Amino acid sequence: MSAPVIPAGGTIVDTFKQSFVDVPIDAENGNAIATTPFLDAAESLTTMFDVLGSVAFSPVKNDMLGNVKKLRDRQAAAPAESENIQDLCRNELKTKKHTATEGLLWLVRGLEFTCLALSANVAKPTEELADSFRTAYGSTLKPHHSFLIKPVFSAAMSACPYRKDFYTKLGSDQDKVVSDLRVYLASLEKIVGILKGFLDTEGKW
């Protein structure tokens, strides 16, 4: 894993191919979330695990990328029915399959885990990353993981770099790093909330 190169005067957010800030949400169509921008943004987020720097985070990153692929595969198979994430899943479920929908479920859990950890860490300037990630893991992914998977993720939490080392890698202007992250994470939190609500109502497969 190689960490992204931060442009001069920029932050980690500037390196993302797609930001959650710019993912279209159609409020007049049940908060429909545009498929390609959402998947591009989810993929971009996984570079954050490269900045965390430990191979222990590889399973976390690979799990999220694997779930993005399930959704992309369904989108490619039925593009006309997959312009937004919600329709993609509804139309897949009509075929009595749920590969992509299950992928979305796990992707949203992974996104929520990352969002909660980073949001808590930004909000608490004295808290170390390992503590923020451990707390977030306990309330998002851990209840759904088997006893075989839990140690793998626990190892990742323990391998978090020190807070000061991590933020330095996100950009040279620390005030801008925190400001950019706040805006980015607020957008991610909104999208996670929309998709969790959707899965709660539609995900009875």
Written description of the protein model:
It is built from 9 helices and 2 strands; from the N terminus they run ββααααααααα. The protein is an all-alpha fold. The protein has one domain (12-196): Glycolipid transfer protein, GLTP (Orthogonal Bundle). The protein has a two-stranded antiparallel ribbon. Helix 1 (35-45) packs antiparallel against helix 3. The protein starts with 24 loop residues before the first strand and ends with a helix.
Write the layout of secondary structure elements.
Layout: E1 25-26, E2 32-33, H1 35-45, H2 47-52, H3 58-77, H4 85-94, H5 99-123, H6 129-139, H7 150-158, H8 163-168, H9 174-202
Helix pairs in contact: 1-3, 3-5, 4-5, 5-6, 5-9, 6-7
Give the key terms:
about 200 residues; mainly alpha; Glycolipid transfer protein, GLTP; 9 helices; about 0% strand; ceramide 1-phosphate binding
Number of beta strands:
2
Please list the strands of the largest sheet in the order they lie side by side.
1-2
Number of domains: 1
At the fourth level of CATH, the homologous superfamily is Glycolipid transfer protein
So what's the overall shape? globular
Strand content: under 5%
Please identify the structural class as seen in this structure: mainly alpha
Question: Helix fraction?
Answer: 55-70%
InterPro entries: GLTP_sf, Glycolipid_transfer_prot_dom
GO molecular function: ceramide 1-phosphate binding; ceramide 1-phosphate transfer activity
Pfam families: GLTP
Domain Glycolipid transfer protein: 33-171
